[in-house]
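Hi X.,

You mentioned you wanted examples for the new student's onboarding notes, showing what a folding record looks like when two proteins sit in one file. Here is a clean example. The first protein comes first, with its sequence line followed by its structure tokens.
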Amino acid sequence: MRGLLLLLLLYPFAEIATLVAMTDAWGGGVTMLWIIVSALIGIAMLRNQQLGALLTLGSLMHQGDQVSLYSLLWPLRYLLAGVLFLIPGVISDILALLLLLPLKGPSIKRPTMPPSAADNVIDGEYTRVDDPTDRSRHLP
């Protein structure tokens, strides 16, 4: 727990240090262009996130019995990568690119649906046979 807290406290300083090193190596204009382009990529990813999730889930429904766990988590990974692209810095951009890698994870078996009541229908013909009624028992 302490390690995670320390990592969260050191992360902004590591991002600033990488930006300063990048500015020192390539110049301020290139660094500013990097930050602006990565933010625009993040905004575009977040705007198109709903369509991507819908297409991913639609394609998973047409696959066979085996579905990859990573492909089920793709919409979440895509959303997190978009947020990481919005954060200015090189480390967050590298983490976003790692999230976008097409990894093939462990397969999970899709649950099969039990047969519905519509599958148990028997086709046939019928005629209704009523008992003969006594007309004398009717009210006049």
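Then the second protein repeats the pattern, sequence line and then tokens:
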Amino acid sequence: MTAVVQPDPIELTPRESAQDARRSQILDAARTCFARSGFRGASMQEICLEAKMSPGGLYRYFPSKEAIIEAIAQDERCGAAELVETMRGTGPLLDRMIGCAMGYFAYMRDPGACELMAEISAESLRNSEIGKRFAKIDDSVRDVMREVLTEAIEKGEMPEIADLDATIGVLQAAVDGIALRQIHDADLSLDRVEPLLRRLVAGLLGMKA
């Protein structure tokens, strides 16, 4: 067998590292402002204050609020893709799906994460361009779920489902609903959610919990 030589990791220069750090600082500040004031209510000045940057410094990275929203959408797409890929693998299907959902719930417990999700959902209904940006995230998650469940059916891991797309929609609605519920119910811990979600998903997929 021929050995494969792995390329050396790419090292960021101090300038690149500083630029990445400043970009992340701006996006984190914007997320906080959007969660607090909404996409419409948050101004570039508010984001500057939250990021502790001058307007000139911020505009070097993002020329507009729309550019910041686009960057957040891209980051969310990358994060969603990384998380949803955990549904693939060789372990029991139910364990993989629950593991993915619990990872999402843990992420949504970060300060402002649920509030930002709620703002994204509301603004997506009012603003078609923002809706299109974040709809891509939802579509990518649905596509992976469809692939994973179709493969599981073909392998005999779960029974045939008459309406797979509707089932996926209900699963997504349940997971998103639980995530948002964390805003109002601080006692809804991950330990309490996990066994209940396992029973719910198993029931929808016709599997044993």
